[in-house]
Specification:
CATH superfamily of the largest domain: Vaccinia Virus protein VP39
EC number: 2.1.1.225
Shape: globular
Oligomer: single chain
CATH architecture of the largest domain: 3-Layer(aba) Sandwich
Enzyme class: transferase
Structural class: alpha/beta
Distance between the termini: 74 Å
Number of strands: 13
Family: Belongs to the methyltransferase TRM13 family.
Function: tRNA methylase which 2'-O-methylates cytidine(4) in tRNA(Pro) and tRNA(Gly)(GCC), and adenosine(4) in tRNA(His).
Domain CHHC U11-48K-type: 55-82
Length: 422
């Protein structure tokens, strides 16, 4: 295909300068705009090596590139740089205040020695048994009556209803509470917590909403609107904080709060560990913590450095060494890296027609059935969750902590919540 020549005009509606590169695979000319004096747009200048300059990854965020000769100027105005400095000077900000203790220096994934996977599977076979926790799915009648009939996909509503009913029974109305939702996203969960409590008693709770991302179509204003409609004589305070949980200090955000509840629906991986540290380091939360309800997910993005309870796995490894089931000995980081990977096996989908007895290959070319892979995934997830539970019992000021399955696996495979109550 010959390059299509575009007639360049000076100004006017037809004066847009079009990139002269022809994309052979798409059989058409690039539609991007180029600079005057250049044949190609910025993207194709880099790809074709034209112009004598090079685009390089931004050292602050490799997801985007910049002209090499403009790198220094770019670093001062990069959006990633601005986001990283957004909370400088805020009392609730402390860089890396909730990350791990430093026993594992970084979060990089290591290449594992030959035989590591076989050792990990052997350790699980000898040391751990899957415990079938009873399903404790509950339902909030008010939310179910107002939402389920209007939804085509009811799974999220069923999960929210069960978690909220657990909360209502553990923390009945009667106290003015502040709910802190970690990893809140659009704050949909907080909105329905607010509705359920308003329906039970005319005392609207306050909310602190924590998330590091910018979210569209947030529910913050709807929380206030629901309160105005359901309880016209009262109002609640809703505070949103855009911050990574690893840098969050809660006390400055809880001035005047005497009763706190930490909540989250599907808090991903390492964010659960960061949240537990954040709660434990807050004097206001520890002094007035009525409950914690964290529905966990995505353990495959946990990491050995930030995991909340490394001694839990150190003890397991020591028991394996004493019984000579691990030779040469596994390290904590190797074990945790494998377990995090295996957690995804518990939620992996299957191809249509796949059977429990079908064979798959994992790790060091190890063959097992699909059912065995599922079981190892559940074992890994159970271990990570039990370590978190043990830490919470020992470090958070509540008399009762447990892991609950709040919905059936047919509703969600990510159906385990860490629940702490007085």
């Amino acid at each position: 295909m010959e390059h299509k020549r575009v007639k360049l005009e000076e100004g006017g509606a037809g004066g847009r300068l079009r990139c002269q590169h022809v994309m052979e695979q798409k059989k058409r000319q690039c539609a991007m705009t180029r600079r005057a004096g250049s044949k190609y747009c910025l993207e194709h200048l880099s790809l074709l090596g034209a112009g004598g300059v090079e685009r390089v990854p931004c050292p602050l965020d490799p997801k985007h590139t910049v002209w090499e000769h403009q790198l220094r100027a770019h670093l001062r105005k990069c959006n990633t740089f601005k986001a990283a400095r957004r909370n400088d000077g805020e009392k609730f900000y402390k860089l890396d205040g909730n990350i791990g203790s430093g026993l594992v220096p970084d979060t990089r994934v290591e290449s594992l020695p030959d035989g590591t996977w076989r050792q990990v599977l052997q350790l699980l076979d000898c040391s751990v048994k899957v415990r079938a926790s009873p399903i404790r799915q509950k339902a909030n009648e008010y939310l179910d009556s107002t939402r389920l009939e209007t939804l085509e996909n009811r799974k999220h509503a069923e999960q929210q209803s069960s978690l909220i009913q657990h909360l209502l029974e553990a923390c009945p109305p009667g106290r003015h509470r502040t709910f802190v939702e970690f990893g809140c996203g659009r704050a949909e969960f907080s909105r329905y917590v607010n509705q359920a409590y308003l329906h039970a008693a005319p005392d609207p709770p306050d909310f602190v909403l924590v998330d590091r991302s910018s979210n569209r179509m947030k529910f913050d204003t709807k929380i206030a609107k629901d309160t105005e409609e359901m309880c016209p004589s009262a109002s609640n305070k809703v505070t949103r904080v855009k911050i990574d949980i690893k840098d969050l200090q809660m006390d400055p955000l809880l001035e005047g709060a005497h009763h706190c509840v930490a909540i989250s629906k599907h808090l991903c991986g390492v964010a659960t560990d960061l949240t537990l540290r954040c709660i434990a380091s807050s004097e206001r939360m520890r002094g007035g913590l009525d409950a914690v309800c964290i529905a966990m997910c995505c353990r495959h993005v946990c990491n050995a450095r930030d995991y909340i309870n490394p001694p839990f796995f150190d003890k397991l490894l020591q028991e394996a060494r004493d019984s000579e089931t691990s030779d040469p000995p596994l390290t904590y980081k190797q074990l945790f890296q494998c377990l995090a990977k295996m957690c995804s096996w518990a939620t992996s989908g299957r191809r249509p027609g796949a059977q429990d007895t079908d064979m798959v290959t994992v790790g060091d070319a190890i063959e097992m059935t699909l059912k065995q892979r599922d079981q190892y995934g559940l074992l890994s997830r159970q271990l990570i969750d039990e370590g978190s539970l043990q830490w919470a019992r020992e470090n958070l000021p509540n008399s009762r902590a447990e892991l609950i399955k709040y919905v059936d696996s047919s509703v969600s495979l990510e159906n385990v919540a860490l629940f702490l109550t007085k």
